[in-house]
Design a protein that fits this description.
427 residues, alpha/beta, Rossmann fold, 2 domains, 7-stranded parallel beta sheet, globular
């Protein structure tokens, strides 16, 4: 079987959307004719680097550094680590210095050096490698892929999961920055690009109007992998007395987080919800700041967080919920991306809702028959939770239509990926 080389700084046991997307692609690559060889960030000691799945296991994974010892971290720091953020308690660790794991660290040059050496060795040992997949941000895998492509003839796919310039200036804005220059260099390199959403593709085409070829950008949506055990048909639940909500909380501006907490608190008070009647299971890279904001407040007792972490545990949190809610802030970045866990919740047939700016996430939730409230609007947030709780109490929460679920299966995504690869010439 032909081999595909994956370059990514997002891979399990990390729980970023990029890690989830890269794992799903790699573990299902055999279905379209390739065997993955993955260069990934360091694993975390005492955490399994694998994800439970009926898909093909990823047999060849090369980590850029030894395992990270996270045994002494508290819940918030562990959450930050799993989302690829710098953790002060670990930042001076030699292992982290050589890994270049965190996107916050200088420029990732150490990660790139380790990955470059591994790539050179693997290409010598594996002449059957004829496909290179690189994912970003962060930038290093994308830049390394361009460098490698100049010296080898094979198909290359750059998977741009978010804007590489997170400020997302409007088309025509001439503001310059290192991120803007790197984005322009990568997008105009002539290499085939993948994006997970139409919003992101349209943004890039408008921003680089006349310079970025429409045919070079292919939308390959994120997806759910129903081979994971949590997707097995569940015995019908006996209606409970506790409303369980899975909340995926993104990092967001403080004003939007305050509005979210205010709206949530107003709902609890307006409906006279007693202690123990609601359980809010939280995940996402905004969790540490959320916990800091609600510390020592009555609402704090409603939140639960899994201290173990990992994709498997997050999927179980979703499966145990009565409905799933995405919470994003009013940032340009949030309009163009959809958290990967939302696709998993969709695949489970969970009722969906979103607190977000108008964009890719809100559109998917509305398409699924869910409820949407504008980020930063505490009153609308309160009404969203009241409406969802009322529907739950009457057993009338809307479930996503089957046609939408089928659109976002991993098989559908891999079919799109196969078509994207086949349509592009060798570099």
């Amino acid at each position: 079987m032909r081999k595909a080389l994956f370059l990514t700084r997002n891979f399990p046991p990390y729980v970023t959307s990029g890690a989830s997307r890269a794992w799903k692609f790699a573990s299902n690559l055999a279905a379209i004719g390739w065997e993955p060889v993955v260069i990934a960030p360091p694993a975390i000691s005492a955490m399994t680097p694998d994800v439970k799945s009926g898909s093909n296991p990823v047999g060849e994974i090369y980590r850029t550094a030894p395992d990270i010892d996270a045994s002494g971290l508290d819940v918030s720091d562990r959450n930050d680590l799993l989302h690829g953020h710098a953790v002060p308690a670990l930042n001076q660790s030699f292992k982290l210095k050589i890994s270049g794991l965190f996107r916050d660290l200088s420029d990732g040059a150490v990660w790139e050096k380790s990955a470059r050496e591994t790539v050179g060795r693997l290409l010598e040992e594996n002449p059957g490698i004829d496909l290179l997949y690189a994912q970003g941000p962060p930038l290093e895998p994308l830049m390394l892929a361009l460098e490698v492509a100049r010296n080898h003839s094979f198909s290359v796919m750059l998977d741009i999961t978010e804007p590489l310039d997170p400020s997302m200036p409007q088309p025509g804005d001439s503001a310059s920055s290192a991120a803007a220059e790197a984005e322009e260099h990568i997008l105009l390199s002539g290499v085939p690009l993948l994006t997970p959403t139409r919003v992101l593709k349209e943004y890039f085409l408008k921003k680089y109007h006349g310079r970025l070829d429409y045919g070079k950008v292919t939308i390959v949506p994120s997806a759910f992998d129903a081979s994971h055990p949590v997707f097995r048909k569940q015995v019908s639940k006996i209606p409970g007395t506790v409303l369980r909500i899975a909340l995926l909380v993104d990092a967001m501006p403080k004003a939007d987080l305050k509005s979210f907490i205010a709206g949530l608190d107003a709902w609890i008070k307006a409906d006279g919800i007693m202690s123990g009647a609601v359980e809010l299971s939280i995940l996402g890279d905004g969790v540490p700041e959320l916990l800091r904001r609600v510390a020592r407040k009555p609402i704090e007792k409603l939140f639960t967080i899994d201290e173990t972490g990992g994709i498997d545990r997050e999927l179980e949190q979703c499966r145990n919920a009565d409905f799933f809610c995405v919470v994003q802030g009013n940032q340009a970045l949030s309009t163009s991306i959809i958290p990967d866990r939302l696709f998993d919740a969709l695949g489970m047939g969970l009722p969906l809702c979103a607190i977000a700016p108008e964009g890719a996430t809100s559109r998917l939730v509305l398409e699924a028959g869910g409820v949407y409230a504008a980020a930063g609007d505490a009153g609308a947030i309160m009404e969203l939770f009241r409406a969802m709780a009322s529907a739950w109490s009457f057993r009338s929460l809307p479930v996503p239509p089957e046609v939408l679920r089928q659109k976002h299966t991993i098989a559908a995504a891999m079919s799109e990926l196969k078509g994207a690869i086949a349509s592009q010439p060798l570099i």
